[in-house]
Prior knowledge:
Elements (H helix, E strand, L loop, with lengths): L13 E8 L19 H11 L7 E4 L3 H14 L3 E3 L16 H7 L3 H7 L12 H18 L4 E6 L1 H11 L17 E7 L6 E9 L2
Amino acid sequence: MRGKGKHTTMHTTTTTIDLLRHGEPVGGKRYRGQIDDPLSEKGWQQMWASVGDHHPWDRIITSPLARCRAFAEALGERHGIPVARDARLMEIGFGEWEGRTAEELLAEDPHRLQRFWSDPLNHTPPGAETLPDFAARVLAAWQEILQRHAGEHLLLVGHAGMMRMILRHVLDMPLDRMFRIQIANAAISRVQVDGEGEAALPRLIFHDGRL
Length: 211
């Protein structure tokens, strides 16, 4: 007797996530961390230039800090895209370094920044958020976003540290190597995730670019 076979059609869900770093904030380049400075006029120009007329996203999720949130909400309003805030996408807290420039820190100790960039696990700034804690909150948000919005095209508006942490995770880099990833103001990186859950395959499609 011939047995009945069962035909299963395999379908892979693809989720596309664009990561957009904020433009230049008021006050220029410094270790800003979670200080809530708004975008400068130049920063606004950088962000609009980065996305151009493109608006392929199903939704926008943003850090609640003003330098990210204000543009995300303006972009969403312009194109009728829903916007949500997620506090877990905030920048890493730099502790006593917050608000200070690299020049100020180097004037006190010329080797301080090199130690931090080379070995951030063992040279955390005083009072700063640790990398393991930062990883835990950012990647918890990342996994939840992938689960809740599988199959969508999303825009995450955030910070260099946030983007480095996600890209490090996608590329399976050691935690202490994340600062080797350079990210410019208003730069966009795209990640495509095929599948869901533990079987999901994330891939970096392009990095540090514009649309």
